[in-house]
Design brief:
With 400 residues, the chain is of the alpha+beta class. The protein contains 13 helices and twelve strands. It folds into two domains: 191 residues, no CATH class; 167 residues, no CATH class.
């Protein structure tokens, strides 16, 4: 009987094409919204996780702030750390090496074009460690700064050919806050648009231009044994908090950053998915309305079926299968539309976001989308199907 019920339901949907399409439209909109929003959340989470992993699992970022590093981001360019703190960190047991950086947002001119971007200041030793030993950044062309060298700059990947109209090459001249700098090196891309357009100059040059006599914005530390990284980070915090006070310093590992990022995006994704799910509730009402109309239009047909031996269960089965099909087809089409939207988002995201990003549709999303819409279809069809099943044959046959 299920096969026959399925065929009857399919014939009804085909016969009432316009009504069926309009009913499924609500499901399609709801599911496509959920799929596209979830794909954005998963894509952003994966993108940031990849960048953090690229930093290396043996690195610790030390910044002013507390609360597991959350407040550190809000005061990312504060300068509470000093040169002496680099030495303190290097003397912590388990630390292989440490480098300090000063960060300033300054105007940069190349030719007739001017942009404002972050300029990093570090010693030649710090840059050699960052570029050659710690592998935080890698040199693509040119060389790293030499000890005591002033007036030179290394440029991020995007500075070379994306930011300015003319390509920036090794040996060219760039002006930072109207001071002349010779380009001695360009760096490989790290996948982050903002970091890829940073400039790296002598710490003394940056302090002369922008102040900060003995201050640093952040310190990178590399540990000897990655298995001890959590203990080393805790030791660094305790050591510096003896100097600055409790809850003033955050020593964050790449794994901790990844966990924080993952939890934040999970909440955001769940929230956005919840908002999109509201449209599915509206779609459920639409399915119920369509099924009620179908019951009214087919009252006489129901009477005939019951008169020739169809049971209440048989009638209910037909209408439930019909509502389930509406939900399933709407969900399937919604998944397709959601996938197409995610591809379109990827096209527009290139160059528009400060990170390498790809909206990702997973098989789990497809299963969730179709399953959710199927459940909505079944629930929405229960009442109308029950009403159809409970119709008295005599009354149904006399219905006009």
């Amino acid at each position: 009987m299920i096969k026959e019920s399925f065929q009857i339901a399919m014939d009804t949907i085909k016969h009432r094409k316009t009504s069926s399409i309009l009913t499924m439209l609500g499901i399609i909109v709801g599911i496509s919204s959920i799929i596209s929003l979830l794909s954005i959340g998963v894509g952003l989470e994966q993108s940031i996780t990849d960048q953090l992993e690229g930093m290396g699992t043996d690195k610790i970022i030390i910044m002013p702030g507390s609360d597991g590093g959350m407040s550190s981001f809000s005061s990312f360019t504060s300068e509470s750390l000093t040169d002496d703190d680099v030495d303190i960190i290097e003397n912590v047991n388990g630390v292989k090496m440490a480098v300090g950086l000063l960060m300033k947002s300054l105007p940069v001119r190349y030719g007739d074009e001017v942009i404002t971007t972050y300029v990093m200041g570090g010693t030649a030793e710090a840059y050699n460690r960052m570029f050659l030993e710690m592998k935080l950044f890698e040199i693509d062309e040119g060389r790293s700064p030499r000890k005591g060298e002033r007036g030179t700059v290394s440029v991020g990947f995007r500075i070379v050919d994306d930011v300015f109209e003319d390509e920036v090459n090794v040996g060219d001249t760039i002006y930072i806050k109207d001071l002349k700098f010779k380009v001695i090196g360009s760096l490989k891309s790290i996948g982050n648009t903002q970091d890829d357009q940073n400039l790296y100059i002598s710490l003394d040059d940056l302090r002369d231009m922008a102040g900060g006599k003995n201050s640093l914005t952040m310190i990178y530390a590399q540990v000897v044994d990655v298995d001890d990284i959590e203990d080393v980070a805790e030791k660094i915090e305790k050591k510096l908090e003896k100097k600055y006070g409790d809850n003033t310093i955050s020593a964050i590992t790449s794994e901790q950053l990844a966990e924080m990022t993952s939890s934040i995006f999970s909440v955001i994704t769940f929230f956005l998915g919840g908002i999109a799910s509201i449209s599915l509730l509206v779609a459920g009402v639409g399915i119920a309305n369509t099924m009620f109309i179908s019951v009214m239009e087919r009252t006489k047909e129901i009477g005939v079926m019951k008169a020739i031996g169809a049971t209440n269960y048989d009638v209910m089965e037909i209408f439930l299968i019909e509502s389930s099909l509406l939900g399933f087809l709407g969900g399937a089409f919604g998944c397709v539309v959601g996938y197409i939207i995610s591809r379109i988002i990827n096209v527009f995201a290139v160059g528009a976001l400060p990170i390498t990003f790809e909206a990702t549709v997973t098989p789990e999303m497809i299963v969730l989308g179709i399953g959710f819409s199927l459940v909505i279809g079944i629930i929405s069809g229960l009442w109308p199907a029950r009403r159809a099943a409970n119709l008295e044959p005599v009354e149904a046959l006399r219905y006009e």
